[in-house]
Amino acid sequence: MPNVPRSHINGLMKLLNVPLNTQVKFFSVVDASLIAKLNQYGLYQGDSLCVVRVAPLGGPLLVQVNGREIALGRDIAEKIIVEIK
Amino acid sequence: MKVALIGLPNCGKSTLFNQVAGYKAETGNFSGTTVKFTESRVRVAGEVIDLVDLPGAYTLQSGSPAELEAARYMDSQNVDVIVNVADSTQLASALSLTFELMQFNKPLILALNMMDEAARMGLHIDGEGLAQELGIPVLPLVASKGRGVKGLFVKALEQARKKENKTRNIMDWTAEASHRQSIELAKKFVKQGERFSSMRDRLDDILLHPIWGYVLLLSVLLLFFQAVYGIGKLTEPPLLAFFNLITNIALAPFTQGSLVSQLLLGILQGIAAGVAIVLPYLLPFLLGLGLLEDIGYLPRIAFLMDALMHRIGLHGKAIVPFILGYGCNVPAVMSTRTLEEPRDRYIAAALATLVPCAARLAVVFGLVAYYLGSLAALGLYLLNILVIALTGRILSNLLPDVAPGLILEMPTYRVPTLKNVFNKAWFRLREFVVEAWPLLIAGSAVLALLNYFQLAYIFNYLVRPFTWMMGLPAEVGVPLIFGILRKELSLVMLSQALGSTNFAAVLSPTQMVVYATFVMFYLPCLATLAVLRRELGTKAMLSISALTIFIAFVAAMFVRGVMLL
Question: Complex ipTM, two decimals?
Answer without folding.
Answer: 0.85
